[in-house]
């Protein structure tokens, strides 16, 4: 897809890569056993849908202010921008945008449940 005159590529990296692979494995096993309509499948389909949306518009998610970017994202991935997409079941997908004169890359860094999201971003339960 093209966004602002540049092709967009979505890459799953960081901890998201492991979470996505594990979820893909579980969904594959469920489908093999003719099990449908599970929370795993709903989440997996939600992720795939959001990835398709990012290919069309990499700025689809909610932009996270720079002062709220967890330091480990800056340290581990040299992140200077961060975006959040809400997924099914109160899960979250966190990504950063990288670009050049040639292309835009949406690099997915994390896919996690709301509890892990709150912990990562330092939010406290009330």
Topology pattern, helix = H, strand = E:
EEHHEHEEEH
Strands of the largest sheet, in order across it?
1-2-6-5-4-3
Unreliable sequence segments: none
How much of the sequence is in beta strands? 25-35%
What is the name of the CATH superfamily? Answer: RelE-like
**Fraction of residues in H or I helices:** 40-55%
Number of strands: 6
Oligomer: single chain
CATH architecture: 2-Layer Sandwich
* Shape field: globular
Radius of gyration: 15 Å
Provide structural commentary.
- This protein has helices spanning 14-32, 39-56, 71-77, 114-120, and strands at residues 2-3, 6-12, 62-64, 82-86, 92-99, 104-112.
- The chain is of the alpha+beta class.
- The protein has a single domain (2-120), classed as YaeB-like fold (2-Layer Sandwich), CATH 3.30.2310.20.
- The protein has a 6-stranded mixed β-sheet.
- Strand 5 and strand 6 form a beta hairpin.
- The longest helix is centred in the N-terminal third of the chain and has 19 residues, at 14-32.
- It is globular.
Main features:
single chain; six-stranded mixed sheet; YaeB-like fold; 4 helices; alpha+beta; 6 strands
Provide the fold topology.
Layout: E1 2-3, E2 6-12, H1 14-32, H2 39-56, E3 62-64, H3 71-77, E4 82-86, E5 92-99, E6 104-112, H4 114-120
Parallel strand pairs: 2-6
Antiparallel strand pairs: 1-2, 3-4, 4-5, 5-6
